[in-house]
Design brief:
This protein is mostly helical. α2 crosses α3.
Length: 99
């Protein structure tokens, strides 16, 4: 009988650990699927877009002039919407691999 009591004690001692693991798992899933901020309305300047894409400013300008990236011009300032920047990046990559 001593073995059954020890086994049941181990089972009960692991229950709080299982609850904590489930809580941590829930928090991790929340972080994975929900971004901290809503980037759908964010506008990037030419410099910000170039640094995000890790390319030169002129490369971004070339894509804007070709029409692969749609941008808004306010005076001399060029603003690129977040969705447009990353959607066009995916299109450029897919075109690159079709060759």
């Amino acid at each position: 009988m001593a073995n059954t009591e020890n086994t049941s004690n181990y089972t009960f001692s692991l229950e709080p650990l299982h609850k904590e693991i489930a809580e941590v798992k829930g928090l991790l899933l929340k972080l994975l699927y929900k971004p901290e901020e809503d980037l759908s309305n964010k506008l990037y300047t030419l410099n910000e877009a170039a640094s995000r894409l890790k390319v030169d400013r002129q490369t971004v300008r070339n894509h804007i002039s070709r029409g692969t990236i749609n941008a808004t011009f306010i005076g001399r300032r060029i603003l690129i919407p977040h969705n447009e920047l990353y959607d066009s990046l995916n299109e450029v990559k897919s075109i690159k691999y079709q060759r």
